[in-house]
Amino acid sequence: MALSTAFTRMFGIEHPIAMGGMQWVGRAPLVAAVANAGALGFLTALTQPSPEELVREIGRVRDRTDKPFGVNLTILPTMRPPPYAEYRRAIIESGVTIVETAGHRPQEHVEDFKRAGVRVIHKCTAVRHALAAERMGVDVISIDGFECAGHPGEDDVPGLILIPAAADRLKIPIIASGGFADGRGLVAALALGAEGINMGTRFLATRECAIHDNVKQKILASDERDTSLIFRNLRNTARVGKNVVSDAVVEILSRPEAQFEDVAHLVAGQKGKAVMEDGDLSAGLYWAGQAQGLIHDIPAVGDLVSRIVREAQDILRGRLDRLFADATEVAV
Ligand SMILES: Cc1cc2nc3c(=O)[nH]c(=O)nc-3n(C[C@H](O)[C@H](O)[C@H](O)COP(=O)(O)O)c2cc1C
């Protein structure tokens, strides 16, 4: 049986589970597998080298599924910004109706998507940013706690506080992101006021995820302590899997007067791509969150999603429901 929430009803999906955009990972076979599992997956626009390639990748998802899916557009401050407006047009003109935005100053993108009738989930890491996005007219907030892979922001507020703090202040539905990997997390997120969960790291260790097996094995071998926070002093904190490169970046940037230029050769996006594709774990950085400590297998996406939902239902109808029965026994 499915769990119905405001999130599943808004997007016409079966389960309250999303797979957020993942650079070098969010490609058609994985996104289609997530859609076919009844969850909501996002292609990552900037993984495609051009807007034209993105259009073709959207077509490849449609070849594999007729269920809902979306596209992630990540707006980051970079030296050479990609042609965001062209990617945005490609998404709209392809008839995609669901977008996940993330990053800095999404207003122009949100306005254009909304004019085109696209539903927008904006992912952010602070209640004040979520409120600003709500005022811009986004449909859902994906609130990303400090546990997450990627950019947790600078406030260091974990999901246990951030999710209910966001739920208290926002009128639109929220989904909870960062640190989720199983049915226990899904029940907790629902209890904290979210309408579903968003996962990244958990989906890396699935059969349909086309990253090198070395990275999947590394995630299985890692525990919840095996991440590094880099770029803290640059106020652009990122959580990555701990390896020799992340250790070197942390060490170099801890030196007085250290600048981004001192680590630029270590952190180039193409090196991260090499880790994911060639499996050389010392070639560069790879994004991974603390949820690594909860990941012990490499299931098919469909099995993972149904297991999470089944676990959640067992907790709700089993262990939690029995608390009432036990309380009655004490009372009589
Ligand atoms: C390999 C990888 C790449 C990611 N790339 C992006 C990205 O390009 N844009 C984005 O908005 N989020 C990105 N994320 C973040 C995820 O969409 C998601 O918010 C995050 O992984 C949730 O935390 P979790 O890993 O604990 O589940 C990435 C995460 C991973 C693991």
Automatic annotation (TrEMBL):
Domain of life: Bacteria
Designated name of the protein: Nitronate monooxygenase family protein
Coiled-coil region(s): none
Gene Ontology MF, one: monooxygenase activity
Oxidoreductase found in the keyword field: yes
InterPro entries in the cross-refs: Aldolase_TIM, NMO
Keyword annotations of the record: Flavoprotein, FMN, Monooxygenase, Oxidoreductase
